[in-house]
Design the sequence.
């Protein structure tokens, strides 16, 4: 510890200048006096600068307490600047992670006390660093913080792609906010704090969360797949529930969670009007029934509207859509559309249907917008472009994917194959088929003998990878909120470089690919390599090489 | 792993550098020792803490100085350093009291220093203070004159007698007292325990150390080579003053090097204007160096 005199002297003449870095270097030592003098001067200045103590007024220091059991530093009053980006609250008490505390000590902002004595930086190194916090971890953290970034421990996947698209990632889930920092719950060995919270929330939230999970999963499944097949099956399943034919095991292609979801909804809705439905369910539904009953008991206002915003709701409808005939305005059946008067009286009260069949002139009623000249041109072109293919494939397919497949098949089978019979007769056939040579890119694609591996498809339901990044890093931002940081600007994984040992190697391609697939966003992953005190950053990112099309 | 031997604290005054082992890495916490290592012993190391006077930047870092395991082995072999681990003493009430006394003493001294400093400042600025007081008084007199009072002009000219003692100096509050975050552990509350250092162990480590020791003996300054893709970087003189000349790559003598690897190393060296030195230990236990330079024949 420095004496008061020394502290005073330092405080008085506080220099802020940073010593020069090198300057112009020489190539070889020539033993000259001037070189020796320069080196000596450098060393003197360096020793002086390194020996300067960290001095601050007592009232300007933030007081922190270190506990070995929790391995956290607790503070009573937050400082002026750092609390916005660092630390977390638990049970009304404010805590700092050890790497944050060590960094703040080096910044001369925080004074940590242990056993009623102040801790030195060396002491902090000895006590804070350990198996949970390695030196490399801290060095990368400090390096990024000194550059000005906001660095927090990796929090896992906060929002799926769907949630980001609909803008739901701005709203922190209630569960996460209550538990505070999710990553530290494992570090706090004081179990009662978490148990208390769990009890406070009660079972009610657990049940709601379970159902939220189901709905979330269901919602993602719905949006992720473009196949209308599922939608139709859902409608069918709802109707099934209505008609009390429950066969959960049968409809495997959808996944049981979806069925659960729709059943729960249908149960709820049908229970409102027809109580019999609930009782006549098969035994497999009993557990759903019990959870529903339980939640119903705890949550009186348990309507489908009060549930969470995310997730896709299936409200079973009173209408039987198979019986209601909607006119097909898109059909190519001429310019006149005939509409039959439907059986049930669907028209509002004042409208009187006189005729049994109404004829509408398509051109007069559809698309009242004035056709621009170029639109007409375009329509004309489209009308004649794929004239031959339309008749059967279009009418037989139920969606665009099927139509495209039909088209491809039709093209490859019908069009001009008889023009080059000698080429396509043998086993050895050309790679490019004339009918498929629609553009240069299409030709190049067909010529590709070696298929390049594409990035693995993004799967929003992927399991967390074996290796997770260590930090989420954000650019300095006034709007940064600790409780809801949002998507990071980049993620960092820390790696120690030991050239003589092979136990720690850089993350291989599979790991990076797994991480990319799991997070499903365009946040780059940086690998921080630490070797004997120096930190170096590397990035591995996926990109697909574009097809070089020089002609056509 | 490491054997621990309790050691007398007095031995550290003998001039040996203290190296602290924390989390598997070695650190030096004293700036004088750090300078001695670099100036006299050509051991460079890497600074890895933040600099107190400019903490928010990464170009100039401060203590502690992190040493490579090869550097530590060399210092131990030469008997110039000791590797210790800090163990915590049991904190007694006596120690807490001692600390409180120290703090109180420091506070008293700071009050003295503060008072003295303020006094000197006042002494320097006394004429200004007097002038200020005079102006104030004259202003008041002016106001009174405006209100109708008749004041003699000589009142304005009257000098104010003031001495340094007349000016009030507020006492330094305890909350405003200066404190520090010490860098190194307090020797009165921690006991350093000697640690048995067992580097190098594996063949690769042994080779690395042999090469390091040999190059150091030849007078080079060596630092970690990961920035340039090698094992070490060799400087002809102090790294602050000179560019490095060699990138040292350690390879076992019997290991084969593919053509691609040679080209990679050659190109790397050329791009950074350094020579790649392939180092190995041959069958006769002698060190052999092969330098690699990419040249073109045009």
Sequence:
């Amino acid at each position: 510890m420095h004496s008061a005199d020394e502290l005073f002297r330092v405080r008085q003449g506080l220099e802020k200048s940073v010593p020069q870095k090198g300057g112009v270097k020489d190539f070889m030592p020539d033993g000259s006096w001037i070189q020796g003098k320069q080196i000596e001067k450098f060393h003197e200045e360096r020793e002086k600068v390194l020996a300067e103590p960290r001095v601050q007024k007592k009232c300007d220091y933030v007081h922190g307490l270190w506990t070995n059991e929790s391995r956290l530093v607790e503070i009573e009053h937050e400082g002026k600047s750092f609390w916005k980006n660092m630390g977390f609250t638990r049970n009304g008490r404010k805590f700092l992670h050890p790497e944050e505390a060590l960094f703040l000590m080096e910044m001369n902002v925080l004074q940590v006390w242990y056993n009623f004595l102040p801790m030195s930086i060396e002491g902090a190194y000895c006590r804070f660093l350990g198996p949970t916090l390695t030196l490399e971890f801290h060095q990368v953290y400090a390096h990024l913080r000194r550059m000005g970034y906001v660095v927090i421990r990796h929090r896992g996947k906060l929002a799926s792609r769907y949630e980001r698209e609909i803008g739901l990632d701005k709203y922190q889930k209630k569960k996460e906010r209550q538990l505070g920092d999710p990553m530290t719950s494992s570090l706090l060995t004081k179990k009662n704090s978490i148990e208390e919270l769990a009890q406070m929330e009660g079972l009610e939230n657990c049940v709601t969360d379970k159902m939220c999970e189901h709905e979330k999963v269901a919602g993602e499944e719905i949006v992720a797949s473009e196949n209308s097949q599922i939608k139709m099956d859902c409608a069918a399943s709802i109707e099934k529930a209505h008609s009390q034919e429950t066969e959960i095991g049968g409809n495997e292609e959808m996944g049981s969670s979806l069925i659960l979801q729709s059943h729960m909804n249908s149960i709820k809705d049908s229970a409102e009007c027809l109580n019999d439905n609930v009782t006549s369910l098969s035994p497999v539904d009993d557990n759903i029934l019990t959870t529903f009953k339980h939640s119903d008991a705890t949550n009186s206002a348990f309507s489908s509207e009060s549930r969470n915003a995310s997730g896709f709701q299936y409200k079973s409808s009173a209408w039987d859509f198979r019986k209601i005939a909607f006119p097909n305005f898109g059909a190519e059946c001429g310019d006149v559309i005939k509409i039959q008067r439907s059986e049930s009286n669907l028209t509002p009260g004042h409208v009187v249907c006189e005729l049994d069949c109404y004829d509408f002139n398509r051109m007069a009623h559809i698309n009242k917008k004035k056709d621009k000249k170029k639109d007409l041109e375009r329509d004309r072109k489209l009308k004649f472009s794929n004239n031959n293919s339309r008749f059967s494939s279009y009418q037989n397919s139920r969606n665009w994917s099927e139509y495209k497949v039909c088209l491809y098949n039709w093209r490859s089978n019908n069009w001009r194959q008889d023009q080059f019979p000698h080429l396509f007769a043998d086993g050895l056939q050309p790679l490019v088929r004339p009918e498929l040579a629609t553009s240069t890119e299409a030709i190049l694609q067909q010529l590709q003998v070696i298929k390049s591996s594409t990035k693995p498809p993004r799967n929003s339901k992927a399991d967390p990878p074996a290796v997770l990044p260590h930090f989420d890093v954000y650019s300095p931002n006034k709007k940064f909120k600790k409780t809801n940081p949002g998507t990071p600007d980049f993620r960092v994984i820390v790696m120690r470089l030991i050239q003589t040992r092979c136990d720690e190697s850089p993350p291989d391609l599979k790991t990076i690919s797994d991480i990319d697939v799991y997070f499903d966003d365009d946040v780059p992953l940086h690998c921080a390599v630490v070797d004997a005190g120096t930190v170096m950053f590397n990035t591995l990112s996926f990109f697909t090489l574009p097809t070089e099309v020089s002609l056509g | 792993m490491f054997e621990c031997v309790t050691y007398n604290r007095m031995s550290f005054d003998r001039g040996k550098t203290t190296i602290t082992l924390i989390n598997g890495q070695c650190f030096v916490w004293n700036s004088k020792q750090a300078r001695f290592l670099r100036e006299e012993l050509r051991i460079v190391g890497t600074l890895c803490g933040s600099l107190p006077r400019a903490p928010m930047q990464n170009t100039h870092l401060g203590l502690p100085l992190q040493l490579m395991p090869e550097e530590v082995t060399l210092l131990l072999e030469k008997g110039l350093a000791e590797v210790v681990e800090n163990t915590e003493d049991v904190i007694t009430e006596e120690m807490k009291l001692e600390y409180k006394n120290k703090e109180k003493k420091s506070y008293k001294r700071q009050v003295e220093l503060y008072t003295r400093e303020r006094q000197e400042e006042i002494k320097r600025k006394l004429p200004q203070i007097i002038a200020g007081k005079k102006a104030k008084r004259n202003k008041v007199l002016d106001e009174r004159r405006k209100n109708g009072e008749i004041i003699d002009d000589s009142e304005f000219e009257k000098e104010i007698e003031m001495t340094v003692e007349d000016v009030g100096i507020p006492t330094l509050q305890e909350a405003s007292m200066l404190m520090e975050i010490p860098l190194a552990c307090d020797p009165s509350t921690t006991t350093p325990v000697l640690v048995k250092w067992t580097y190098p162990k594996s063949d690769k480590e042994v080779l690395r150390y042999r090469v390091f020791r040999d190059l150091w003996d030849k007078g080079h300054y060596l630092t970690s080579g990961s920035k340039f893709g090698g094992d070490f970087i060799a400087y002809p003189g102090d790294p602050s003053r000179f560019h490095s000349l060699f990138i040292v790559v350690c390879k076992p003598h019997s290991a084969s090097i593919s053509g691609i690897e040679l080209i990679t190393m050659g190109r790397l060296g050329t791009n950074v204007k350094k020579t790649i030195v392939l180092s190995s230990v041959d069958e006769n236990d002698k060190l052999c160096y092969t330098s690699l330079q990419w040249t073109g024949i045009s």
Observations:
- The CA atoms of residues 12 and 134 of chain B lie 62 Å apart.
